[in-house]
Amino acid sequence: MAVQAPQSSLEKSICLVGNPNTGKSVLFGILTGTYVTVSNYPGTTVEILKGSATLNGARQTIIDTPGTNSLTPMSEDERVTRDLLLDHPPGAVLQVGDAKNLKRVLAVTLQLAEMGVPAVLALNMSDEAYARGIHIDAHQLSVELGAPVVPTVAIQKTGVEALIKALGSPRAFTAETEFPELIERAVEKICPLLPQTSAQRGIALMALSGDPTIADWLRAKIPADDLATIEEIRAGTERAFLLPLSQIITRHRMHQVNRIYNKVTERTEGSEGPVAAWLGRVSMHPIWGLPFLAMTLFLTYKFVGVLGAGTLVDWVEGVLFNGYINPAARSAFAHVPFPIVRDLFVGEYGIITMAVTYGVAIVMPVVFTFFIAFSALEDSGYLPRLAVMVNDIFRAMGLNGKAVLPMVLGLGCDTMATLTTRVLETRRERTLVTLLLALGVPCSAQLAVVSALLEGNTRGFFIWGSVVGLVMLAVGFIAGKLMPGRGSDFILEVPPIRLPKIGNIMSKTLARTEWYLKEAVPLFILGTLILFTLDKLHVLRFLDMAGRPFVTGMLGLPASATKVFIMGFLRRDYGGAGLLDMYRHHLLNESDVLVGLVTITLFIPCVANFIVMGKERGWKTAFAQAAFIVPLSFIVGGIVRLLLNSGLI
User: How confident is the model at residue 501 (pLDDT cuts 50, 70, 90)?
Assistant: First the structure.
């Protein structure tokens, strides 16, 4: 006998649901007045976001869920969305769909119909659909679905007033899929065993599909005997078919999707400009796309590496912090009678003089300029094309093109990029990308130091880049073969090439910078506290002595370079800056610089990134990856030393 599910219904709430990259978060920002991000790329809508708004005279809670392609989850994001709908049934669901991809939208719509939730469908990006010659009869679609359908262009706020009005009278989708008689009988048998909820039909179909996550959800809601009975019904029903029930259920849903699509859609010749269409095709070509990639990387480096990591950091750190803030802090703490308290806040490893200076004065200008560049690339439609172009390379490592997104973010800040690996679909992919980020993706601050060290040294820059790139490919390929599991399918919406809007770029940049301050800066403070403790316990001095034989023997560098690697763990660019200082004082020659740069680029990531690795992947995985990376970096550095001395490179 079924028991009542412990649910908390949010009757005055509106839950936004939809495929990734449909403008869902833009509508969330319009409704709540709080802009999040335009698309579901790294750092966007991974966690549930809430806001509030007064709509149609009533105060509503607005919930933005992670993007989902199915309510039978294939990723953690999709499971979060599904469980929220089950555990906290909203007063209404606002499904946000990309009008250019109506079939993908309807696939989710039919599952929402099975869950019986009141809903409104926003057909977003209607202008882009029209430009591609896709004409959707919204009125006929509303008739087919049994609920309001409103065409919108969120970034222009077109259709928003009509959408708000429709949210005043949402209705459950009625376009349910008819399945074979045996499956319908099984649903009828399972429903009485389920918690009393309007979503019983949807839950029963998830159980029949063999979804292990719904079994986990039900385990806490119904008696074990009822759960066993459901599994018996599923197994007995599946034996009557030649194919798995999940395939049969999906196939019948797609028949319904195609029927509705063909009834409400007409195709004509698109009006997309010929130049934009040409750029869209060429920019993701495996050969002709390379010049676009090179130009993009060059412009991004000039904007982020030179303006952000150079000009802005020099002013914020050199003028603002070193000229005013840090001297004022030291003067204030000079009156504190306890030396350990002074050291804690304004000492060599002080919270103000190191953690805040690092997080706000040095890293924030870099990530701020990177967020601007990344948002422009995101809104232009280029990032999905980059993912398509590099998909074959990443597939050799058991990943797919989506993995390039956190990797590109890593060029801004590896700490931030590691946090955004959450958007990848499997734990295997997240762990592998975390390893590659920690191993060899230099952040913007480190790239700026590398550029200063190798300025005018084209041969050295080529050797450094080639060695780091080859090591990452080799490690990724071997790890991809050794790690259990398989990569996820590569399904990615490729939007048209378009001119980014400055207002959207700045809104996204400010939101992401706020996220950086909340997520990353506390980790810099924690990392500094750890280093402060290690310094007081003389552990750093012990590490310096213990590491010297490896630095002098394996790498052939002066003993004073040992501290460079310890400081490199504190901050990646500190290590590079230490090498630069030694080079300027003629303590290193050009070969020493190359060996040091290769080693410190592959060396263990900064302490903030390491803490995030432990937080995201678990401390066992973080320490295992560090134990692999540290010796590998020294081995590769030693090999580069031998090759340079022998004249082979």
Answer: confident
